[in-house]
Amino acid sequence: MIQVEGINIAVEGCFHGNFDEIFGEILDIEKKKQIKIDLLLVCGDVQTIRNKNDMYNMACPKKYLEMGSFYKYYTGEKIAPCLTIFIGGNHEASNYLREMHFGGWVCPNIYYLGNSNVIEVKKGNTTFKLGGNSGIFNNHDFNNPKLESFPFTQDQLHSVYHIKQFDLYKLNLYEGDINIFLSHDWPLSIEKHGNINDLIRKKKHFEADILDGKFGSISHQYLLNKLQPNFWFAAHMHVKFEALVNHQSNKKTKFLALDKCLPGREFLQVFTYTKEGVDLYNQFAFNNEPIELYYDPEWLAIMKTTFNLQLIWDKMPKLFDINYAQKELKIIRWQKYQQMLQAKQQLLINYKNQRIKIPNNFQITATPHYKNDPTNKLTLPNRVILNNQIDDYLKLFNESGLQLNGFLFYEPQQPQKKEIQNQFQVINKIEIQQNKEKVKQEILKQLDQQQKQQKINDNLNILDFPLLQ
Ligand code: 5GP
Ligand code: MN
User: Which regions form coiled coils (predicted)?
Assistant: First the structure.
């Protein structure tokens, strides 16, 4: 076995609450190969259930509802054997993940990436950018720009995990290199880049969708072509599948989907990420520096640029158009997208030299389940709270989570979004005044030039983007 400097990574498909089993498997691999796994990446359906409230906020047939063992990791009774990072699938404690909408620790050593995110992973001299997009694609809910507010109705319990156009928009503003990307369902047509016959042989019921060209998510197909990461890991289809995508830019993406955790199934893959970014199966890193997570400056700039847009969530304009006949998803209101892109580039000037470590600021925020609870009672508080982690995070770009109360969070004691919106808009306006003026002037200058060159069909309404007002 060759020793290299790098990060030993295990990737897992669907997790389905199997904390003890999957962590047990990690320990077995470590013992067998005499290595230390630095990082476990999980591609969704994790089921981080802390208590009965969470159980009833998960979309799942009633007969499969189980408490699982997450609550032991939540209380610290047990601890994940390695740093674990996950994105959400379609079976999650959606109330809890909503609390961590922009990313956060769900318990010590287990980090949820949020609805969409890009972060930096570092160990010694090796670093890589990790991106992700939680949920699965649903055409109806993608086109309906509303965000579900807690408490969720039965319908919302399902739509809450459907991919939102806003997250795709944010990821689409990312221009840097992403090395590893995580999703739950697969990019549309990814099967064409791998052994399609083998896939159909293993999963006969995929054949009709594959032949119809309807297999996978159109939003992930779009992102795969746009971001062109070195690796893309996914799950959801309950089968292992490998593909290699050669992009027009000559970049390559190695795609790997893994199965769910069941005996005898291929649900784990171990590999080593090295500084050169090459995957070295069967070669492992023996350098044992600690692994660290950092915020990504460009993502912070995107968060700041798009922050005000989500305050008008209930009136948010449609940002994408999907032409199913052409299998094409595209941005509409192109000029406005360009404005956002430029606003981000301006902010990035301030953010780019900042290296901010993701703090270990996990705190227990709900009453955990306890083993001998004979009752079926819900535990308080049954709401999506604005927790300390989101508060800390939003402070990084001078925003307050209270602006999102009433739709992202649900703090009945605090003013709801509608009451405080005006007040915060004033504060916000002052805070971003300097940047805004500069960006606005540049954009107006550019638009002026563009208008001279071509007739703009898209009727520009700058009011839709409060940042640029
Ligand atoms: P889950 O574990 O999320 O409840 O269910 C995932 C299951 O749905 C998998 O077993 C997979 O076979 C099936 N599935 C998900 N998406 C598709 C699809 O687009 N076409 C087909 N035929 N099956 C799908
Ligand atoms: Mn799933």
Answer: none
Ligand 2 centre distance from Cα of residue 238 (Å): 8
pLDDT digits (tens, 9 = 90+) for 198-237: 999 999 999 999 999 999 999 999 999 999 999 999 999 9
Determine the atom of ligand 1 nearest the C-alpha atom of 260: 2
Residue nearest to atom 18 of ligand 1 (CA): 215
Model-level pTM?
Answer: 0.88
Lowest mean pLDDT among 129-133, 306-310, 311-315: 311-315
Q: From the CA of 204, how far away is ligand 1's center (Å)?
A: 12
Report the nearest-CA residue for atom 15 of ligand 1.
Answer: 237
Say if residue 453's pLDDT is above 80: no
